[in-house]
């Protein structure tokens, strides 16, 4: 039996005699364990932890699919009502979407992030109230207005007053009685920002709304049903609906996705890649420490030989090495845990807003258990590597004066560890270089219009003040005219959406002369000055005019991609289109394509029609300023406030700000991956330098003989650097092979660059070899200054 307390005390004294080795090891492990623990806490909180809802494994997202809404999950209220009525695999189905309310208060109107929901939404998800109830009473009439508040809004706006129940809030000019308050932490997945929920303003079974697919559908599986059964059943229902309602449902399918996957699916590849990267850093650190431990054990061969000759068996020697490895691993893990707390807080502070479930990120028992398992594995690894050296040791030969430097097995093990370390580091450096090149492509985005001096402002007009579509159209025209007269404003346009500032909506369009051909396209309602304000060139025909008003012939403009698909080798101007509602539009012009923000993605077909002919209460104002955008933004907001007391006016944002907002997430991912790559590069360089330093120490006699026989310091230095570079080159080749094998995993994060890009991989290898050369040069220079007489005398 080993007396572990005594072994640990001796191991502590032994490590105390090598403070440099101890500090370097603990710092190396602390950095790697801290980063690994912090990123694992993120992966566990976002990806692995179940949704905080009752029986979350039974929750699914029900998405109607069609080429016109590729990449989006949408649902139509009447379709959902039909699924709920006919399905046996679904226990319940709920429907919801975000909405913007104008909340009228004592100081005017303000924007409130709201949502529309069916009563079944909350029961399907299993949400609970903190106060009141979440669904209207059965005897409530459809004309009555009700609102359910989020817990956060209840605390911030109403100071957590229990008397809020029954209070009237004026939303969009209509009174709504507060029906209930959601319990703390209770939020609708994918709609977490909603602060106030109201019922749908129409009957979900209303056939007039079947073509409005602006909602999210949530389902709860029946107790004995699985997702595949629901998929088959709803696919059959969709085919039946396509036959019954061809105008709105022809070509639409269904996709049943686990709700957890819908919430985190978009960030899953990036988070797993970051965790793989930080795990590689941990492996590089462990190999580095193992190499240092091996070198230290080689320097203690005589001590271990004496212990062996005095009766200590290999098991006892291994136990001693295990005790030292345990202390090193425990000290590194303790340092890492302190660092992990800080790194996790830093991650949450810097994380992009698009990262879901950040409230679930924390250092819990599972994260600590993984850190403990990693610590045990490191302790065994640090003991096993030098133990392999002990197994080959002949105590008598060592006591007679044998030199460790002549042990080829030890040299081979050192070299293998360095090659493995370099390969792992090259994988990270190459991956970081690819992601950095992808990010640089986003920075070079050229959309095809002038982005300088361009502002966007979201304007939401009151339906109470402008109840009719024609009235809000006149109001928006007056707003544009007033802003156009400002000294700092050059041009103003109005649109439901545009490049980088949202508002994307899709539909299908057919050329009137080829009704069998359907083209899935994004559509926008825009004002006459939109294209000139944006700086988007007109290729053919004319732009929109003030005369394109209600009662005038319906017209539209299309982009180059749409014109090429609809009328190849023909002039699109004068042709007619039919939209999915059956309305006919005459094409009066063709505008240039806007290049997508993601390089390598082809421009989507787009259709633009006059805002005045199909007005909406919310729209973006696109403002081209004459000088400083900040000054123009101030003038625009002041004028808008005077024009409409009941309008909601958002903060003006420049195109540069919009681009920067879209760069937050890729920039965050690039920074993290680049940081891990630099850390791995540093550790691998230290490993190579450590190997050469160990080699110089073990070959001191040989170097002295060579120099005594005439070898110059330059020759000695060159031979040692060459050996280090051979190992670095071998590891680099292995690392490139690993990158090529992992290319499909990297492809999810790359835009406009191939994961197998030869120039990027060659550059990463060259960068690493340059760093390795510098790392090799330090011990090589020291070896070149060796005094031959001292080296021979010491031996």
Write the layout of secondary structure elements.
Elements: H1 4-16, H2 19-48, E1 59-65, H3 77-86, E2 90-105, E3 108-117, H4 120-125, E4 129-132, E5 146-149, H5 151-158, E6 168-171, E7 174-182, E8 196-199, E9 216-221, H6 227-244, H7 246-249, E10 253-258, H8 259-264, H9 268-299, H10 301-309, H11 314-350, H12 365-391, H13 395-399, H14 408-443, E11 454-460, H15 469-484, E12 489-495, E13 505-511, E14 519-526, H16 530-534, E15 538-541, E16 555-559, H17 560-566, E17 576-579, E18 584-591, E19 606-610, E20 618-625, H18 629-643, E21 648-649, E22 653-654, H19 655-698, H20 700-708, H21 713-741, H22 743-746, H23 758-784, H24 788-794
Parallel strand pairs: 3-8, 5-7, 14-19, 16-18
Antiparallel strand pairs: 1-9, 1-10, 2-3, 2-6, 2-9, 4-7, 5-8, 6-7, 11-20, 11-21, 11-22, 12-20, 13-14, 13-17, 15-18, 16-19, 17-18
Helix pairs in contact: 1-11, 2-9, 2-11, 2-12, 3-6, 9-12, 9-14, 9-19, 11-12, 14-19, 14-21, 14-23, 19-21, 19-23, 20-24, 21-23
What can you tell me about this protein's structure?
Helix 14 (408-443) packs across helix 21, helix 14 crosses helix 23 and helix 20 packs across helix 24. Among the domains are: 1-53 and 281-402, no CATH class; 67-251, no CATH class; 466-643, no CATH class. The chain contains 24 helices and 22 strands. The relative contact order is 0.11. The mean pLDDT is 83. The longest helix is centred in the C-terminal third of the chain and has 44 residues, at 655-698. The strands form 3 sheets. A 6-stranded mixed beta barrel has the order 2-3-8-5-7-6. With 795 residues, the protein is of the alpha+beta class.
């Amino acid at each position: 039996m080993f007396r572990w307390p005594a072994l640990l005390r001796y191991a502590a004294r032994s490590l105390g005699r090598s403070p440099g080795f101890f500090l370097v090891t603990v710092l190396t492990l602390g950095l790697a364990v801290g980063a690994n623990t912090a990123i694992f806490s993120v992966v566990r909180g976002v990806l692995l932890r179940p949704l905080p809802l009752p029986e979350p494994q039974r929750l699914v997202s029900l998405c109607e699919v069609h080429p016109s809404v590729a990449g989006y999950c949408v649902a139509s209220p009447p379709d959902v009502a039909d699924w709920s009525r006919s399905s046996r695999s679904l226990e319940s189905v709920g429907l919801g979407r975000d909405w913007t309310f104008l909340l009228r208060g004592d100081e005017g109107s303000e924007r409130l992030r709201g949502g529309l929901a069916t009563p079944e939404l909350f029961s399907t998800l299993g949400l609970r109230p903190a106060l009141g109830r979440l669904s209207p009473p059965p005897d409530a009439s459809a004309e009555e207005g009700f609102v359910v508040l989020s817990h956060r809004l209840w605390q911030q706006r109403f100071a957590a007053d229990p008397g809020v129940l029954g209070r009237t809030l004026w939303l969009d000019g209509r009174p709504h009685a507060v029906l209930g308050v959601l319990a703390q932490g209770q939020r609708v997945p994918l709609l977490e920002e909603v602060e106030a929920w109201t019922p749908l303003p129409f009957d979900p079974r209303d056939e007039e709304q079947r073509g409005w697919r602006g909602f999210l559908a949530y389902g709860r599986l029946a107790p004995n049903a699985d997702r595949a059964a629901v998929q088959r059943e709803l696919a059959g229902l969709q085919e039946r609906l396509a036959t019954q309602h061809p105008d709105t449902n022809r070509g639409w399918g269904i996709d049943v996705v686990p709700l957890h996957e819908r919430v985190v699916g978009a960030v899953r590849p990036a988070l797993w890649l970051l965790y793989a990267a930080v795990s590689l850093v941990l492996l590089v650190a462990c190999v580095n420490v193992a190499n240092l431990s091996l070198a230290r054990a080689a320097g203690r061969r005589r001590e271990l030989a004496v212990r062996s000759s005095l009766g200590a068996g290999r098991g006892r020697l291994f136990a001693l090495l295990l005790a030292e490895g345990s202390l090193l691993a425990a000290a590194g893990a303790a340092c890492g845990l302190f660092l992990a707390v800080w790194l996790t807080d830093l991650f949450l502070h810097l994380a992009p807003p698009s990262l879901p479930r950040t409230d679930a990120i924390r250092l819990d028992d599972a994260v600590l258990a993984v850190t403990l398992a990693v610590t045990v594995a490191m302790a065994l690894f640090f003991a096993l590597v030098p133990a392999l050296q002990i197994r080959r040791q002949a105590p008598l030969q060592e006591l007679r004066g044998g030199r460790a430097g002549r042990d080829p097995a030890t040299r081979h093990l050192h070299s293998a560890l360095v090659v493995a370390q370099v390969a792992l580091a090259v994988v990270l450096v190459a991956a970081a270089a690819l992601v950095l090149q992808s990010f640089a492509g986003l920075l070079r985005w050229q959309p095809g219009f002038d982005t300088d001096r361009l502002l966007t402002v979201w304007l939401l007009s009151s339906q109470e003040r402008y109840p009719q579509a024609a009235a809000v159209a006149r109001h928006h025209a007056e707003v544009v005219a007033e802003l156009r007269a400002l000294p700092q404003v050059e041009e103003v346009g109005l649109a439901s959406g545009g490049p980088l500032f949202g508002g994307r909506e899709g539909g299908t369009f057919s050329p009137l002369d080829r009704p069998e051909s359907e083209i899935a396209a994004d559509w926008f309602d825009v004002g006459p000055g939109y294209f000139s304000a944006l700086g988007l060139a007109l290729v053919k025909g004319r732009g929109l005019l003030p005369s394109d008003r209600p009662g005038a012939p319906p017209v539209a403009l299309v982009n180059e991609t749409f014109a090429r698909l609809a009328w190849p080798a023909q002039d699109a101007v004068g042709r007619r289109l039919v939209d999915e509602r059956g309305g006919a539009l005459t094409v009066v012009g063709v505008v240039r394509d806007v290049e997508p923000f993601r390089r390598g993605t082809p421009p989507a077909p787009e259709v633009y029609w006059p805002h005045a002919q199909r007005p909406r209460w919310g729209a973006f104002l696109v403002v081209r300023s004459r000088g400083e955008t900040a000054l123009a933004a101030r003038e625009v907001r002041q004028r808008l406030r005077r024009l409409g007391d009941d309008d909601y006016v958002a903060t003006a944002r420049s195109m540069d700000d919009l681009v920067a907002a879209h760069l937050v997430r890729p920039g965050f991912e690039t920074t993290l991956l680049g940081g891990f790559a630099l850390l791995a590069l540093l550790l691998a360089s230290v490993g190579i330098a450590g190997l050469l330093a160990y080699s110089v120490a073990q070959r001191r006699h040989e170097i002295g003989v060579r120099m005594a026989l005439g070898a110059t310091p330059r020759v000695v230095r060159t031979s040692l650097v060459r050996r280090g570079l051979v190992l670095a080159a071998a590891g680099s080749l292995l690392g490139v092979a690993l990158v090529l094998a992992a290319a499909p995993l990297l492809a999810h994060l790359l835009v406009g660059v191939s994961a197998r890009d030869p120039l990027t991989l060659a550059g990463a290898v060259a960068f690493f070899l340059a760093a390795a050369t510098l790392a090799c040069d330090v011990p090589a220079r020291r070896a070149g200054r060796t005094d031959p007489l001292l080296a021979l005398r010491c031996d």
